[in-house]
Amino acid sequence: MRPLLALALLGLTPALTPACSAASPPAATPFETGKLTIGGEAFSPAEVLDARALPDVNGKVGIMLTLSPGAAKRLEAISGSLVGRPMLVALDGKTLAGELIRKPIANGVIEIPGRWTLSEGEALARRISGRDPLPDDLGAE
User: How far is CA 44 from CA 38, 69, 111, 114, in A?
Assistant: First the structure.
């Protein structure tokens, strides 16, 4: 029996059944953001696709930022001009990291070494991106 016919026999229409309605993704929770600068250039929260706290095996928590394709190209140019020198990452004028650049960062991902607690790292990541991190499994809700 066809699904629509079966629903009609049950007195249901696809538009009224939860299983048939298109589920929209949950709205991003807005958080107050700060001014992120990388190598002296400002990056907007919209350019940060994901920001998350990453605990390491020693109990320290760092931050991983994943930038949009356009921002990743800017990051590659900035980091390329700083090879052999430190690249400062700051939020609201406070330095978060100043790691030595050995080669241009071409993948649009920055890992800021850990020195925070997990709750501090999560709050900092939200302040950078303005939202919760993406789920590890994009198919999950």
Answer: 11, 13, 17, 22
